[in-house]
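Example (one chain per record):
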Amino acid sequence: MASSDNKFNCCTLLRKKDRETFDFLYAEFNSQFYGMALQCLGDEELANEMMILTFTNIWKDLDKFNGDNSQLRSWCISILMRSLRRVSASDKTSDSSESTDIPQLKSVSV
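Predicted structure:
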């Protein structure tokens, strides 16, 4: 099978929510995404929570992915960044008298 066929099959299987393919996706991207979240959040526990949230959202939104394998990483990063922005936005809208465990986001290089 040609590599382009493998790429197509990977995306096709992901859209069908094939668990084994998703596990492969997780293994491929988790450490890199964790590093990005840790760089932004500055807290290991929050970065771990962000990974759970991010990969849950990736799983839920797989049917919305219309790209090919070359676009998959970027699409997943956009979900991670959207999750990080939500954390930042919820931190900014918190009542100032209310204590929060979520620190301000730092910049991240993608």
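Caption: The helical segments are 3-15, 19-41, 44-61, 69-93.
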